[in-house]
């Protein structure tokens, strides 16, 4: 496993801390690297002096140690990476990342604008978001994978999605996160939205933070029943007739897949439903064949 060793000590309590400083003399100290970026309470004061190891201005992946372990304060859902290089492709910054411990494959990120990152900086990735320490703003920041975010933003939304989102606005007002006037404006914008991007803009959220309506339980049950019917048809048939016997299951499967993807245009949605149903023939056939063999053995 391993982790990066702290690069400073608190002058008050002697605890090991992670230290960042910039050319303007700003300083910040963390008890742990990465989200939720817990600041060290003793040194959460820019006027205090802190001794750093070797004069470094940021934690370094070169201090990675197998013996070191991250604390329980770090959110393990965010995976640590190191910036390998940053290039410009098709006018957009492309950030190549490698795993902090060097094991496994790296990944690459397309961002909408050049970020204050450089080679060997430590970042943290979760789904379509990347958390990093912004050297310009001098605070933790989150960036979206622009290519992935653009794909999500183009997805269509349904009335169910709008109802799901509108139901959360009252809770946001009660929590003090939104004013009544803001709720009114957001409600109008939500009703006018057609895509997830427009819906996220209405709520002033990143599109990767947007939560739309979950699948209907009935559609998931329909999918399961369809697969069971297809497997059952194979186990009960011999040779050629099995495909025809699978037909009810195939139709149910296609219907379920169609209903589970309301954010797609009609043409691609139908194509996905048909292809998924046809692809499901193979695993359903294998399962049905295994059941048939078991029945014959008995």
Structure description:
The protein has 298 residues and is of the alpha+beta class. The chain has 4 domains: 3-65, no CATH class; 79-150, Beta Barrel (OB fold (Dihydrolipoamide Acetyltransferase, E2P)), CATH 2.40.50; 154-209, no CATH class; 217-297. The protein has 8 helices and 12 strands. It has helices at residues 146-153, 159-174, 180-192, 196-203, 217-236, 241-259, 266-279, 281-297; strands at 3-4, 8-9, 16-21, 27-30, 51-52, 64-65, 79-89, 92-99, 107-110, 122-126, 129-134, 139-144. The strands form 3 sheets. The protein has a 6-stranded antiparallel β-sheet. Helix 2 (159-174) packs antiparallel against helix 3 (180-192) and helix 3 (180-192) packs antiparallel against helix 4 (196-203). It is globular and about 75 Å long. The two termini are 50 Å apart. Residues 51-56 have low confidence and may be disordered.
């Amino acid at each position: 496993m391993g982790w990066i060793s702290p690069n400073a000590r608190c002058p008050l309590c002697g605890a090991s801390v992670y230290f960042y400083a910039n050319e303007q003399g700003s300083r910040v100290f963390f008890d742990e690297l990465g989200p939720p970026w817990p600041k060290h309470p003793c040194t959460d004061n820019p006027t205090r002096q802190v001794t750093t190891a070797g004069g470094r201005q940021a934690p370094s992946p070169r201090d990675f140690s197998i013996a070191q372990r991250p604390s329980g304060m770090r959110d393990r859902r965010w995976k640590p990476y190191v910036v390998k290089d940053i290039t410009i492709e098709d006018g957009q910054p492309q950030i190549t990342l490698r795993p902090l411990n060097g094991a496994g494959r790296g990944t690459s990120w397309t961002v909408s604008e050049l970020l204050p990152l450089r080679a060997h900086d430590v970042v943290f990735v979760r789904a379509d978001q990347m958390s990093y320490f912004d050297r310009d703003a001098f605070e933790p920041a989150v960036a979206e994978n622009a290519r992935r975010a653009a794909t999500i933003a183009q997805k269509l939304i349904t009335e169910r999605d709008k109802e799901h989102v509108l139901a959360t606005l009252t809770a946001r007002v009660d929590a003090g996160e939104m004013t009544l006037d803001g709720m009114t404006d957001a409600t109008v914008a939500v009703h006018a939205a057609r895509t997830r991007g427009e819906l996220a803009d209405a709520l002033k959220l990143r599109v990767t933070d947007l939560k739309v309506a979950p699948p209907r339980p009935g559609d998931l049950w329909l999918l399961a029943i369809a697969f069971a019917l297809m497997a059952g048809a194979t186990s009960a048939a011999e040779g050629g007739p099995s495909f025809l016997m699978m037909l009810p299951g195939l139709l149910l499967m296609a219907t379920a897949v169609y209903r589970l993807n309301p954010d797609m245009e009609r043409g691609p949605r139908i194509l996905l439903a048909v292809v998924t149903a046809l692809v499901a023939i193979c695993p359903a056939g294998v399962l049905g064949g295994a059941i048939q063999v078991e029945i014959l053995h008995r």
